[in-house]
Description:
Layout: E1 3-8, H1 12-21, H2 24-27, E2 29-35, H3 38-48, E3 52-56, H4 64-74, E4 79-84, H5 89-96, E5 100-105, H6 110-131, H7 139-157, H8 166-176, E6 186-196, H9 207-215, E7 220-226, E8 229-236, H10 242-260, E9 263-269, H11 279-291, E10 300-302, H12 303-306, H13 319-330, H14 333-345, H15 349-368, H16 373-381, H17 395-435, H18 443-450, H19 454-465, H20 469-487, H21 492-498, H22 504-515, H23 519-528
Parallel strand pairs: 1-2, 1-3, 3-4, 4-5, 9-10
Antiparallel strand pairs: 6-8, 6-9, 7-8
Amino acid sequence: MNYTVLVVEDEYDQRRAVIERVDWAAAGFEVIGEAENGVEALELLETLEPDLILTDIKMPMISGLDLAEKVREIRPATQMVILSGYDSFEYARKAINYNIISYLLKPISSSELSEELFNIKKRMDEQLGKIMPKQDPDLERRLKSMQINSFLLPLMLGSNEEKPEEAELNATARELGIIENGDLPHFCIIVSKFKSNDGNPATGKEHPDFIDAILGKYIRSFSFLVYGRVVSLAIISQPGELSNTLDLPLKEIVQTAKRMLTQSCTLGISREFTELSSCSATYFQAVAARRYTRDGAGEIRFINDQERDGEIEIDHVEKTVLKLEQLLKVGYNEELSEFVDGLFKNSTPENADLLLMQILATVYRVTSNAADKSDIVNLLSSNPIFSRMTTYNSETGVKNELISLCLNAKALISSSQKRDSEILCDRAVNIINERYSDEGLSLTEVSNELAVSPNYLSALIKKTKKKNFVSLLTEKRMKTAYDLLLCSNLKVLEISKKCGYSDQHYFSYCFKKFYGDSPGKIRSAQRGE
């Protein structure tokens, strides 16, 4: 396959020479964009989604290495080639950390760069080959993989007749290489699904290896296929930083699936846990989390993004209740009505009372995690089933009022989720408005403060505010700078620092791009008037 390229060079003639004189097509590349500095490159990154960026290391405002660091945060699937006049081990060492596939010393001629592109293409193909699924020829490794799957599958689905002893589970996990001696293991469950471009389910037996190949670049994981989903047990080395640890690998999975498999991928992530016996409960957390992606606010969803702390544990809960919880949270109205109706059709008279209590308890617990207390009181008081629970003679009457209660509860949950999303975005904007002068203010810092994942906050801001985090931050800084230019006697350097820019040239560039003219000219023009 051919790879797409974005060329970044601040000297126009040199940039055009690289684009026009290098034989890109012969090596299997296509130039799809160009930028004169790192700021422009970052703006083009999200729209063009290049496979490769070729950049000079020495550029105004953002150096090549700084650009590489930011590119890795936004699009870890993109590789970098650095052109540099520095033959320094320190530069090369940093380059390894930022997806830099080649580090080339200048001066380099067009023909030399053309030849080097064949080596770069070979390395990218090798990396892709490690990710793309293929049959492992090693029989012993395949048998080991089957043993791991046989061990984990019953844990995920809760199919063990008795809750297994934790010590016994850990011993087996160490024997299979899932955890290592000396580990104090922390885990999470990741559930993923793939769809083709036409929206049809595409998750297949090749996808567990695809997931593990990408996750394996960052953390240890074990993935297998179950019920049309890829289920992954991830071992976390930094307890308490789940969303930050998984930020890059999950982005890379989504981006690589889109570019290399031409498929969309959605992922749900459970809470962190320490006991393998908790796999079943956390598996259902991950399943529910993935279903939340239906709202269009990003392909990656952590259960903590969506459900408040103290969300009910679902260990030892009947499967009917598990399904009801999922439908209340992320199901469709028709599904919910049919499910409750089906419960009554399949229930014996002896179990009807128990079933009724289970449904009522589930509705209350799930709703209380999403809505305010006053809303819950209104919901319960408006449905007659609570006042007539012991006086029903008609099963149909019970069923119809239960369906009505469940539908109203679902509407309340959806409304509360939407309101919570708007509140979360407003809180993020408030942080920007209060701390825009902090040069280091970042999406990750804000998401940690709000106790959600960076992926979710980024997608939520785009959906709600129609802009990304950086755009909102830049807009606040520029508008503040404009006011200070007109309403104070501060120097431009002082204004730039107050607005979060230590580099005056970078500030002036951003200001001119935002307002169409330099800070000095705007100040002079306004005061002249």
